[in-house]
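Researcher: Re-running this chain for the archive, since the previous output was lost when a drive failed. Same request as before.
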Amino acid sequence: MTSFLLAWRFLTILPGGKKDADISPRDLGRSMSYYPLVGLLLGVLLWGTYELFSHAFPRALCDGLVILLLVIITGALHLDGLADTLDGMAAGKSTEERLQIMRDHRVGTFGAVGLILILGVKFLALNSLPEETIGKTLLVALVLSRWSMVQLTYRTPYARPEGGLGKIFKENVKKREMMIATAFSLVVAVFLLRFWGLVLWLAVGVSALRIQLFFEKKIGGVTGDILGAANEIHEILVLLMVAGIFHGFF
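Model: Regenerated structure tokens:
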């Protein structure tokens, strides 16, 4: 339970048990096995909220409010990582410069534009889905996106030589956590969307591998910001693929 609550508190701003001052680095690593479960619970919360809003508001407004709620309850954690990553990759010329820019909490032009675009496309993708598929799609998107963070943490070197919180996670997430997160995400995706759930699971797995190879080449590994960016990328990847499925693209 301690590991689950750590994952819940790290990935959301919602209350979840008492804070424990005696948390060990290994506890942080174990908590990553619960990241897809946290995604599932967030998806249930968003689905329920959407159903509630749908009785009072037009469809487009419901979709926008659901995206807004997701940003709020996650504390914009992953969006912040996305903005920092975009700024670092676009403006930095060397590994050191990219890492330095990513550490700067100020949002630059590339980060700001990226946030606007990704939130806009996320809204459009969600709004394009048949209403009866929205709940299941949200569940799968939030589970698989958080699974991608576990994959990248487990497989990829930590890029900052001086260390950081991400390094603690990297050093303490083991094969057990990776296997639990992988199995859970696969079961949820296939249970909810059957064959297409498997396709989405494979797509996120391949995408995470591509992201890993890209950042190993660019800066030698990943950071916490890149993990947040990967989460956002895979949320929108699932939404776009499901939209494509229901509009005959796949």
